[in-house]
């Protein structure tokens, strides 16, 4: 039996070690590429990175794609490691709205400007849900109750400073309510947040729409609104913007290239990412994960990141985090 | 009885030669990974995740079930033989299990663990099959006030491991509570004891501490004594390779009690399988005190049987919670959730209607995995015990390597390796000065649970302390707690009075 133990251990280490080695050797980007997921296994970035890996490999765009997890501190541990990988063009990293929150929250000394953003790729939207027997049937009811007693409504969602939390802050500011008075119970995922809702601990949960879709369909929770700019296809839930609330934060995900690479290498990475986006494999995984395509590259991307970073930082300050 | 019919259909679905092969592979892989310190079943499932792209869903999930349960069977093996648990749920098994191994009863200890895991897992799987929908309603009764009461109860239930030397025990407990607070506070975003080091922002993982304190600390300890007392600790496995009838009768009530304790914990998100194992251990220990010839401390079979059964009972109901609620209560369950999503399936109340053949096939494969694991583990118990015959320098050198591998594999960070080394030295010093290690780990497991539930409850009630006694469940728990304390104090006073005479 010890043989099995050794085989398992050796293959596990080998996978980790080789993925780093392949990151530092070889120049042909289409032969081998490493995608860093700056989060633990099973998290949002991890599944994003692994879906990218499958699409790149499945569509024959890159021969050998590895995913390496560098978890910690809202992605900023991964970011600070990545920002030192000068010129290692065959390593790219997943990024997104959560990382901007992490940068602001942890006063990270490095930010996305220490890397070369390749593209924004996809985003998903949040839903505001209450338990099925809650006294609120619409956003209007909820906002009325909230305005009366700003710290009396108990919200829940992901970690403090996550996109879920920031959406609540934006909603509060839009209603001229003090963001620092929001009562927010952070949970480690949509499942746990819904659990607190059903146990009556919290009043409203803000979480990824795709995480609660089935709970809504099963009638265990009521959805009051979604945060998408337009109504989701085939979903009869009003958007925040059509109800007149100025909430525009979305949970986007994208890819970064390391600093210090040549322009040819960067162009090649851009081409790889663009081809992957077009592939049938990627279109299928968008559908499977209920992500919306939101492809953006070039100067518009940099502009978007700057804006989003400024907005996120401001909101986190408003929340007093 | 509709469930029974569906389950048999599930068996028909799972009973293809190919699926049986996947169960076997999964079980072997899970056992192997579980045996290695620091590598839990969550790691194995994560590495297998890409397989889901190539396999059909039933085959993939059947294999995952094998890995999941295999990890839980395997983690106790090293805990018993080497005092180096593979993951947190095996910590409680080291207390008496390793003492049994030292007393030359290693094969019996391994068999006890395997049968305990089997009983716990089987009972919980049966429960899930018939009650999966009801689980949803049950778990909705648990809010932070209930969790807080449970955490307090668990502290008291496990306080018996502190009681041998009150001062040292409390010191160790406080150290554990302290380590658990490191990192960014989840509610206020304040940094606590992180000294501005970004690697500490997310706290120190329980896996690192467990592996460092128990496994690496043990390695250092053995290394420091290797030329001083070589003969004294030669652990030759002796006796029959299986449980005698008397041993079986001794362990049976403990297996069943452990299962009863573990079952409800799978449904409520209170930190996975480790909390109930401690409670089961504490219960057995206090029951043992009242017997004529207390066995604890000398390698009590009950002290091993109960936590093993509790740990696996939790796992079974945790899988039920994942399927019926879409609520992942452990890291492995969270990754399995991701795997479900790869197939476009969303675990939750609708999964049983949308993909019945998959759900029932998976539930059937739980039973298969249990049986395969029992068959794998029982005959191998004496074989595993032979590991102890490896010369100690090689054996413990190997363990040290695997500790490093396990921790590095989860975080890919050298910082964690240094942390492993530092905490390992701390574990060595604690061993050297006979400070008990269990309270430190109990503090790390229960501290965050107590803290978050206390704060969640107060946040939710707007600062009203009445929330802690508002529901029936916490009140019942507190009453039980008061009775247990009263009995234990009365017992102690009586013992003291007798001494005086």
Automatic annotation (TrEMBL), chain A:
InterPro entries: BUG, Bug_dom1. Keywords: Signal. It holds the Pfam family TctC. The keyword Signal applies. It comes from the Bacteria. Residues 1-25 form the signal peptide. The keyword Signal applies. Belongs to the UPF0065 (bug) family. PANTHER family: TRICARBOXYLATE-BINDING PROTEIN, UPF0065 PROTEIN YFLP. This is Tricarboxylic transport membrane protein. It comes from Sediminivirga luteola. The lineage of its organism: Bacteria, Bacillati, Actinomycetota, Actinomycetes, Micrococcales.
UniProtKB/TrEMBL annotation, chain B:
Residues 20-441 form the DUF112 domain. The keyword Transmembrane helix applies. The keyword RNA-binding does not apply. Pfam families: TctA (PF01970). InterPro entries: DUF112_TM. Keywords: Membrane, Transmembrane, Transmembrane helix. The chain crosses the membrane at residues 20-39, 59-81, 109-135, 147-163, 170-188, 200-223, 321-340, 360-381, 393-409, 415-430, 437-454, 466-490. PANTHER family: TRICARBOXYLIC TRANSPORT PROTEIN. This is DUF112 domain-containing protein. It comes from Sediminivirga luteola. The lineage of its organism: Bacteria, Bacillati, Actinomycetota, Actinomycetes, Micrococcales.
């Amino acid at each position: 039996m010890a043989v099995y133990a050794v085989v398992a251990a050796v293959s596990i280490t080998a996978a980790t070690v080789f993925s780093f080695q392949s990151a530092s050797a070889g120049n042909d980007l289409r032969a081998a590429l490493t995608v860093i997921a700056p989060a633990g296994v099973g998290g949002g970035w991890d599944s994003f990175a692994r879906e990218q890996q499958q699409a790149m490999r499945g569509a024959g765009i890159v021969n050998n794609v590895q995913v390496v997890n560098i978890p910690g501190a809202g992605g900023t541990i991964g970011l600070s490691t990545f920002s030192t990988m000068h010129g290692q063009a065959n390593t790219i990293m997943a990024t997104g709205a959560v990382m901007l929150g992490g940068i602001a929250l942890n006063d990270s000394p490095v930010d996305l400007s220490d890397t070369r953003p390749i593209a924004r790729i996809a985003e998903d939207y949040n839903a505001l849900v209450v338990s099925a027997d809650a006294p609120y049937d619409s956003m209007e009811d909820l906002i009325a109750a909230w305005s009366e007693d700003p710290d009396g409504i108990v919200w829940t969602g992901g970690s403090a400073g996550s996109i879920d939390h920031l959406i609540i802050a934006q909603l509060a500011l839009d209603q001229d309510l003090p963001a620092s008075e929001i009562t927010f119970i952070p949970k480690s995922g949509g499942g746990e947040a819904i659990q607190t809702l059903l146990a009556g601990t919290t009043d409203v949960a803000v979480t990824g729409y795709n995480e609660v879709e089935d709970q809504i369909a099963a009638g265990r929770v009521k959805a009051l609104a979604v945060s998408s700019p337009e109504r989701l296809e085939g979903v009869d839930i009003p958007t925040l913007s059509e109800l007149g609330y100025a909430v525009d934060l979305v949970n986007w995900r994208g890819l970064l290239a390391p600093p210090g690479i040549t322009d040819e290498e960067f162009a090649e990475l851009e081409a790889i990412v663009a081809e992957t986006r077009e592939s049938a494999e990627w279109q299928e995984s968008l559908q499977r994960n209920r992500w919306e395509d939101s492809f953006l590259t070039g100067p518009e991307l940099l502009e978007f990141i700057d804006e989003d970073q400024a907005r996120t930082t401001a909101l986190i300050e408003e929340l007093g985090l | 009885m509709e469930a029974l019919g569906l389950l048999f259909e599930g068996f028909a679905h799972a009973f293809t030669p190919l699926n049986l092969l996947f169960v076997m592979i999964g079980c072997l892989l899970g056992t192997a990974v579980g045996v290695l310190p620091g590598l839990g079943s969550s790691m194995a499932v994560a590495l297998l995740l890409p397989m889901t792209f190539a396999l059909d869903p039933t085959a993939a999930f059947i294999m995952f079930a094998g890995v999941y349960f295999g990890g839980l069977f395997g983690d106790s093996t090293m805990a018993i033989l080497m005092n180096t648990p593979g993951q947190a749920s095996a910590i409680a098994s080291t207390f008496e299990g390793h003492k049994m191994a030292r007393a030359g009863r290693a094969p019996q200890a391994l068999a006890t663990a395997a049968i305990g895991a089997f009983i716990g897992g089987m009972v919980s799987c049966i429960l899930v099959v018939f009650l999966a929908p009801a689980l949803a309603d049950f778990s909705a009764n648990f809010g932070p006030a209930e969790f807080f009461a449970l955490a307090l109860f668990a502290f008291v239930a496990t306080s018996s491991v502190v009681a041998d030397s009150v001062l040292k025990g409390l010191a160790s407990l406080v150290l554990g509570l302290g380590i658990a607070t490191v990192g960014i506070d989840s509610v206020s975003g304040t940094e606590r004891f992180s000294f501005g080091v970004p690697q500490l922002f997310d706290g120190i993982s329980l896996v690192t501490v467990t592996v460092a304190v128990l496994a690496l600390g043990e390695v250092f300890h053995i290394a420091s004594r290797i030329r001083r007392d070589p003969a004294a600790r030669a652990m030759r496995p002796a006796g029959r390779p299986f449980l005698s009838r008397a041993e079986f009768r001794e362990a049976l009530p403990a297996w069943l009690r452990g299962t009863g304790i573990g079952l409800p914990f799978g449904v409520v998100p209170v930190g996975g399988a480790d909390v109930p194992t401690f409670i089961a251990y504490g219960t057995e220990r206090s029951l043992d005190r009242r017997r004529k010839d207390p066995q604890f401390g000398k390698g009590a079979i009950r002290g091993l049987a109960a936590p093993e059964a509790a740990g696996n009972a939790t796992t079974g109901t945790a899988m039920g919670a994942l399927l019926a609620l879409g609520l992942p209560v452990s890291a492995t369950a969270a990754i399995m959730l991701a795997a479900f999503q790869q197939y476009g399936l969303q675990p939750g109340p609708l999964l049983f209607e949308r993909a019945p053949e998959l759900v029932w096939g998976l539930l059937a494969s739980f039973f298969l995995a249990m049986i395969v694991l029992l068959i794998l583990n029982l005959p191998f118990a004496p074989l595993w015990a032979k590991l102890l015959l490896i010369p100690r320098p090689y054996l413990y050198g190997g363990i040290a390597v695997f500790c490093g591998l396990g921790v590095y594999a989860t975080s890919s960070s050298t910082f964690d390796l240094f942390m492993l080394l530092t905490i390992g030295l701390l574990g060595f010093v604690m061993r050297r000065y006979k400070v008990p290690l269990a309270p430190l780990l109990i503090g790390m497991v229960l501290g965050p649970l107590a803290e978050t539930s206390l704060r969640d409850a107060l946040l939710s009630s707007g600062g009203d302390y009445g929330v802690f006694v508002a529901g029936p469940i916490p009140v019942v728990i507190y009453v039980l707690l008061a009775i247990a304390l009263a009995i234990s104090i009365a017992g102690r006073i009586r013992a003291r009075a007798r001494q005086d005479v």
